[in-house]
Amino acid sequence: MKTCKLRLNGKVYDQLRHHLFSGDGLESIAFALCGKLETENELIYTIHRLELYANEKCTIRQVDRVEWEPAEIVHLFEECRKNQLHLLKIHCHPKHWPFFSLTDDNSDIQLIDTVTGWTGRDDDIFSVIMLPDGSLFGRSINSTGSFTPLKSIVVISDNILVYTGLPASENPTIIEEEEDIQLRTRQAFGEGTTNILKSLKIGVVGCSGTGSIVAELLARLGVGQLVLVDYDIVERKNINRILNTTIDDAQSSNKKVDVIKTAIDRMGTGVNVISITDDLHSFKAYEAIAACDIVYGCMDTVDGRHLLNRIATYFCSAYLDIGIHLDADGKGGINEVFGRVDYIQPGGSSLLSRGRYTLEHLKAADIARTNPEEHDRQVKEGYIKSARVSSPAVISINMMFSSQAVTELLARLHPFRDLSNAKYASICFSVSGFLLINEPDGSPDIELQTKVGAGAKTPILDSPLLILPKWIER
Question: S-S: 353 plus which of 97, 313, 370, 445, CB 3.0-4.6 Å?
Fold first, then answer.
């Protein structure tokens, strides 16, 4: 049986918490339409649109019960049918009852019968409960009335909230250490952090100078699943900055992701590594990264960053992007050594709206990708602008910013800073000037704001320009 997961962004989470706990101590309800990604082993649902159900429209609101008029949400059934979306019902338990009641069971079965009758589709619906502390747990309900617990619910906001499984009182056979709904309250940098990491699937796109370091750190932290994406082979010039590579790998033209996977497997940390020997513009890579809760962008290309930002938006993933810039003076010296880590959350600003690149840069990158000669010229330019250096001595700089990018994830899983994480949407550091600048999130990307949680669609990501022939190859 495939496991089911749910992801949502912080804006939806905050709206839900405000609506469901209005202060009168009675149950309230809301509905959402979700996008979907189906892989070989997982069903991942992402909240695309939230609709709060007004308290005054409820036919019954009590401390342990809420009822509503189905006719009031018929338009949602129709939208599910027309746009291949999936219905989610969310209500609260004001008294902190961490289980689905018999009343909840009957309500969910009636709802699945109504939805399947209206849409004519034999799809599951979902039911989620929010408790007063903001924690969430849920289940899917199929057309036969069978319930299946959601494996995890992940909220991507300034902080990353991870809720796993049903409470122990609902499912006493579950080991509490692994499935406690409040794992995030345990000791930061101790079992609280490590148990959350075990429940996450994290993708690393680009496995060279920074990506190999990020993968190493995540593996030693013990993430549950690690997806590595890179089409390139190990070359002699890479050995001084890609961890775990050897001269034998270069001579054998081994794939970078395969070398890193082998090294992680030898660690014995129990991390399940999935290696994708392709670039992000392949369907296989797109699907694997879309299934990740967190994605790291460790690429040099603008079009790769743009695509990854889009994937993270459609599938409600957190996106951490690493950029390093070394500017030569043309006389053998260096003018500037500069790096940054951007934390991008669905529905907020994007790398494009933050000015990390422009549409002109994106167009040029697309031409370079489809023009091998121009692409090779850009690759040969290497790390250091205005200097042709095939094997730059940058591993210490790479480690500095790769480490910061992983620490950034830990800070959002277990906030430890003096200031709110909202102040650290971007961290920029000039190594040459020894100057650190942190900035809050900017204005939302207007175009991407409407795509949050849209899931797998045709055309892919609503952008035919991004689709190469191999995107449709499975």
Answer: 445
* Contact (CB, 8 A) for 215 and 195: no
Sequence ranges of the domains in the chain: 3-185, 198-472
Rounded to whole angstroms, the Cα distance separating 145 from 342 reads 44
Q: Which residues contact 191 (CB under 8 A, 6 or more apart)?
A: 177
DSSP sequence for 369-389: HH-HHHHHHHHHH-SEETS--
Tokens of 22: 């209005």
Rounding to the nearest 10 degrees, give the CA dihedral for residues 458, 462, 465, 471. -40
Can you read off the two tokens belonging to residue 183? Answer: 């794992």
DSSP H helical segments within 315-394, as ranges?
Answer: 359-370, 372-381
Structure confidence at residue 171 as a pLDDT band (50, 70, 90): very low
CB 24 within 8 A of CB 80: no
Higher pLDDT, 383 or 58: 58
Task: Tokens for 254, please give them.
Answer: 């081994």
3-185 architecture in CATH? 3-Layer(aba) Sandwich (3.40)
Unique residue bearing structure tokens 């993933």: 317
Asked if 140 contacts 134 with a C-beta cutoff of 8 angstroms, the reply is no
This prediction's pTM? 0.90
Q: pLDDT-based confidence at 168, cuts 50/70/90?
A: very low
Instruction: Please state which architecture CATH assigns to domain 198-472.
Output: 3-Layer(aba) Sandwich (3.40)
Amino acid letter for position 270:
G
**Other Cβ atoms closer than 10 A to 463:** 13
The reply to whether domains 3-185 and 198-472 share a CATH topology is no
